[in-house]
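Reviewers asked in the last cycle whether our approach scales beyond single polypeptides. To address this, we selected a multi-component target totalling 328 residues and predicted its structure end to end. The input consisted of the following lines:
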Amino acid sequence: MLSICQWIHQTSLSVAIRESIWVYPILNVLHCVGILLVAGTIVVVDLRLLGFGMRRTAVSSVVSQVLPWTLSGFGFMLLTGSLLAWSEPVRLYRSVFFPWKLLFLAIAGLNALLFHLGVYRGVGSWDSATLTPARARLAGALSILCWICVIAAGRAVGYETT
Amino acid sequence: MRPHSFTYDFPFCAAFEWMERSPIGEFIRSSRVVFPIVESIHLIGLALFVGTLLLLDMGLLGFGMRRQPVHQLAVALGPWTWSGFALLMLTGPIMFTGQAAKWHDNPVFWIKMLLLIIAIVFQLSVRRKIACENPLLRPAPAKWIGAISLLLWISTGLLSKMMEFV
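The resulting structure, written as structure tokens, was:
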């Protein structure tokens, strides 16, 4: 794994991002915008599932209107994040918080996937309910928790000295 | 962190220096984890703020959230937007105090603060009064209000991150 990281580290793309004055900061800024878009919009869905927000709108209506924004933010975040990671793979390999960030990201993704394949299939029967099924509330709470952890771990990576 | 010596002669030098050396400033610099924790809370507040604001602005622009009237959307999302804003206002000044003198010397910081004030004023006056509480707003002015609001907040956000790198 370390040798793969070292190989990435010396690729011309990695060197170019690292050594240019503006590319790294700009990617960093865009990455932040991406994650804010993802976390900020998905939280609206989560709040609806938990019964704390948009209670008068049907769950499926909230999901279908918000999800395009979450997904485009996610694509944006993934693209800029990969480039950032490509520019300093060895540091991230040695990082304590980076694996945690990836773990929480994976749990958030898995949680969303299971929600859509599972309890959301039968949304018809609880679409306009304020009190959604326990599994939907659990998914909402887990999602909020995961994204908070992703943001906190991501921020911690920036301050690590390895 | 070292106490800062000024390179630009902006106003409020002494006040900023006093803030940085105050007990709050000392506390923030006392440990390596305090600042990242406060910053994480700031970002979580920002996510809540930007996310809900974006959805409402998209409703105004007519790009999304089209299945309910904008004023209804504003009622549903408003409390969350302002909760996010409260988190930002709580954590922002704390982070600032830790390095007040450093930010004092950063031109991008001043531009950000200026934009922030403009954005808040716009939010409280035009966007809230005209767009969100008026069910009969015509599409064209709504589009302008949504676009200006987005532009103001996005540039404030971009500058916030950018000022770290200046």
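The interface with chain B takes residues 25, 28-29, 32-33, 35-37, 39-44, 47, 53-57, 61, 65-66, 68-69, 147-148, 151-152, 155-156, 158-159 of chain A (CB under 8 Å). We regard this as preliminary and will revisit it once experimental data from Aim 1 are available.
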